[in-house]
Amino acid sequence: MQPRYCYSLATVYSLATVFFHCLFTVVFISLLTPPSIVHIIPFLHCWLEPVSKHFTVRSTPVVFGNGTFLGSFSAQTTLNSEGLKPLFQQLDIDDPESVRAARDFFKEKYGGLDVLINNAGIAFKRTYWNPSCDSFKTNFFATRDMCNEFLPIIKPGGRVVNVSSVMSSIALNRCSPELQARFRSNDITEEELEGLMKRFVQEAQAGAHSQGGLTVLSRIHARKLRHERPADQILLNACCLGWVRTDMAGPNGPKSPDEGAITPVSLALLPAGAGEPHGQFVIDKKVHPW
User: Fold this and answer.
1) Omega before residue 277 within 30° of 0, cis
2) Would you tell me how many other CB atoms lie within 10 Å of the CB of residue 77?
3) What is the pairing mode between strands 235-240 and 281-283?
4) TM segments (predicted)?
5) Are 83 and 77 contacting, i.e. CB atoms less than 8 angstroms apart?
6) CATH number of the domain that 13 lies in?
7) Domain with 66 in it
8) Number of domains comprising the chain
9) 64, 39 Cβ separation under 8 angstroms
10) Which of 129, 165, 263, 264 could bridge 207 with an S-S bond, Cβ 3.0-4.6 Å?
11) Can you give the pTM of this predicted structure?
């Protein structure tokens, strides 16, 4: 019997004011042997559609879920037109209980995950950003907690993709040489990174670059996986989508959603037995220094 796939994209999307908007997205893909159920947690379908197409050409079950269900019906209509039958499951990555419940759901029902794509983030208008805003809570800390809960249930041969931003590298270049050296060191720990993030905020003076911590965290988690589960051949990488035309990024980006999906999908579908890339930062399917 051909293996089936289960996908889960979890989203909380809220328009808090006319000045900023928030997007929380997590993609789960779990390899299944016999199931026929399709679970779908929809989010902004402009990114959901191209990602789904790459996987569903060889799969049946798909699961998506979101926190507020904003845009769910629009996404459901789009997916139905592609021959999919979406169901919904709620997940808010800023809520530890919600994250643990989702982890338990996939562990108990499917035995774990084969692919986890973290695409969580909040974007604020530059004028209205301040260090106390929630961008770091979601872009770094909540995503870190997601990884710590879900990495143990990634199956052998699994793939993990953390969506970051090349802008974080540009922001780091504005920081002190000492801070740059620690962020780019090969022995930085998760605990040290957490402490450095506050300095990064102050020196970079740009909340949108909170995803820089996610790039470094990806290297830390990749190193940990290689040390603790070497035989499982799990590959974990960070990537930048580029400026994509979405509800969040606006209509002027040079990339279509289909083009933006190419890099994370390629990392999610690295072939069995591949050893690289691992712990890298990837742009347009090419490894870049950070």
Assistant:
1) yes
2) 12
3) parallel
4) 12-32
5) no
6) 3.40.50.720
7) 4-288
8) 1
9) yes
10) 129
11) 0.77
